[in-house]
Protein 1
Amino acid sequence: MGSASLIALLIIAIAMAVIMIYIGKIFGISSTNPQKGEPYECGIETKGLTWVQFNIGYYLYALLFLVFDVEIVFLFPWATVVRELGMVAFIEILLFTGFLFIGLLYAYKKKALSWM
């Protein structure tokens, strides 16, 4: 692919995104119901203030989950071709998981894994 193809692809992608947004605005159903602006949580009406601070530990758990979830996403394609790629691929995946394990140890050392 030359640079002209990449530029054309970028222009087409941006144009399609803009077209889809305008199609949604033109044909979409909109309402001005005051309940539309209310916070919604699982069908239960909120009571009190809705801007409540959450403990940072919840976000740390979510980020750690995402890191290891992404690791698994990268491990599946690697596992399908590991025999074809040989020992180099095995060493590379050991380094990959090693770096993530070092991150896990760092989070453990900083007590990011202790629940409130």
Protein 2
Amino acid sequence: MDAQEEELKNKVIEAIKQVYDPEIPVDVFELGLIYDIKIFPVNNVFVLMTLTSPSCPSAEAIPSEIEEKIREVEGVNDVSIELTFDPPYGTEMMSEVAKLELGFL
């Protein structure tokens, strides 16, 4: 990944960190819901993500909000969000920040 792609990826991560699961006071990135972020030619962004559960009440809202925030990042051409439940989400996917915030540490 070149420096421009790395910088764009960091901006995308910052945008994603503005999105919170409505039931948990931690952003979706720190929760570990983002499995992969790829920057393709012409600044097309691909995000592979999951939700805390397949029956999450915010199943539509969270991916839409993530896409909206990424589209606001200067330089982003297009955004593709893919939802997966493989592997299933578990609390071990949370960052140390999220675990501290939620009392897991």
